[in-house]
Amino acid sequence: MGKNYIDIENDLGETLRYRKHVNGRGLIAHGAKVHPSAVVEAGAYVEPGVQIAAGAHVGRGVWVEIDAVIGPEARIEPHAHIGQGAAIGAGAKIGVRTQVGTGARVATGSLIGDDETIGDGERVATDQRGLRLAA
Predict the structure, then answer these.
(1) Domains of the chain and any CATH numbers
(2) What pLDDT shows up at residue 114?
(3) Is-contact 56 73, C-beta < 8 A?
(4) Which residues pair with 112 in a beta bridge?
(5) What distance in Å separates the CA atoms of residue 103 and residue 87, rounded to the nearest whole number?
């Protein structure tokens, strides 16, 4: 039986240990909390302090930075990037290759399309078609 973790050195020369999540084999850093029913696909990285709720789905190649929060039943499509301290609401969908900035907030049930960018600190709410709602 092979080991269930890998060690990776960050830009500061610190070694971080990642374990493979039971659902999908994505890499979860020590200190992150991922619900057992969540799926984190292979090739995804979840950094320390991240919280991923029940039923959430994190696609392959996604990078979820430090202290981000992914709500219940949220779906993060492949190769998206969730910035440090960002929050994705319950049932929200983040499209392929979409960038969510540091400290950004995506409201519950929102639909963010492919290749979009949500700026640092931006707050976004959409309807089920992805049309932005007035703040």
Answers:
(1) 5-124 (2.160.10.10)
(2) 96
(3) yes
(4) 94
(5) 7
Exposed, middle or buried by CB within 10 Å (0-12, 13-18, 19+), for 90? middle
Question: Is 117 within 8 Å of 98 (Cβ atoms)?
Answer: yes
CA distance 25 to 127: 32
User: Cα separation of 66 and 21, whole Å?
Assistant: 17
DSSP one-letter string for 93-112: EE-TT-EE-TT-EE-TT-EE
Listed in sequence order, the residues at least 6 apart from 14 whose beta carbon sits closer than 8 Å to its beta carbon are none
Distance CA 133, CA 54 (A): 26
Task: Tell me which H or E stretch contains 12.
Answer: none
Q: Tell me, what's the pLDDT at 51? A: 98
Q: Around 134, how many Cα atoms within 13 Å sit in the side-chain half-sphere?
A: 0
Residue 135: predicted pLDDT: 54
When pLDDT is cut at 50, 70 and 90, the band that residue 58 belongs to is very high
pTM: 0.91
Contact of 2 with 19, CB cutoff 8 Å: no
